[in-house]
From TrEMBL:
Region called Disordered, residue ranges: 34-75, 144-166
InterPro entries per record: Rieske_2Fe-2S, Rieske_2Fe-2S_sf, Rieske_Fe-S_prot
UniProt KW keywords: 2Fe-2S, Disulfide bond, Iron, Iron-sulfur, Metal-binding
PROSITE patterns: PROKAR_LIPOPROTEIN, RIESKE
Entry-linked Gene3D superfamilies: Rieske [2Fe-2S] iron-sulphur domain
Source organism of this protein record: Streptomyces longisporoflavus
Protein's name according to its UniProt entry: Cytochrome bc1 complex Rieske iron-sulfur subunit
Keyword Disulfide bond: yes
Comp. bias (Acidic residues): 54-64
């Protein structure tokens, strides 16, 4: 049986525009890692998948190895944080840096552009792989856009040679 053009339904303009909108929205959300709740890649940071980001590097850490990150638990030893660099504690949701010898800072590990998790600390910046934003290790300020706001600070305490999340 053959079907001629006359027998095929013609989509309405409304159907075409709606379908195009749905496809555009899905593509944008997939590209930026956004979910409906506003979090990047999903609401469970432990279950994150970073589709277009580099694998974890030596500059990242899993807080299980460092003793956890909640309620004053030790994140790391001061000797584990390089001067002029830092270390990412993705389970605790923070980046700890040491801008100068003996000075320790902490920031959220979520980029202020689209809430993607940052994945490296190199060359004096905290780096987001999603769109290329970079933040200063000294104060979390934006060093490369598209992020327009600095990384929010996080509270840490240094007790002897231990760094703890406050």
């Amino acid at each position: 049986m053959t079907i001629s053009k006359e027998h095929l339904p013609v989509p309405s303009r409304r159907s075409v525009v709606t379908a195009a909108g749905v496809v555009s929205l899905a593509a944008a959300l997939a590209a930026c890692g956004e979910s409906e709740d506003g979090g990047g890649y999903g609401s469970d940071p432990a279950a994150e998948q970073k589709p277009d980001s580099p694998d974890d590097t030596d500059n990242t850490d899993n807080t299980e190895e460092a003793g956890g990150g909640a309620g004053g638990a030790v994140l790391a030893k001061t000797s584990e944080i390089p001067v002029g660099g830092g270390k990412i504690f993705k389970d605790a949701g923070v980046v700890v840096t040491q801008p100068t010898e003996g000075e320790f800072k902490a920031f959220s590990n979520r980029c202020t552009h689209k809430q993607c998790p940052v994945t490296s600390v190199e060359g004096g910046t905290i780096n987001c792989p999603c769109h290329g934003s970079k933040f200063a290790v000294a104060d979390g300020s934006v060093q490369a856009s598209p992020a327009a706001k600095p990384l929010p600070p996080a509270e840490i305490t240094v007790d002897g040679d231990s760094i703890k999340l406050a």
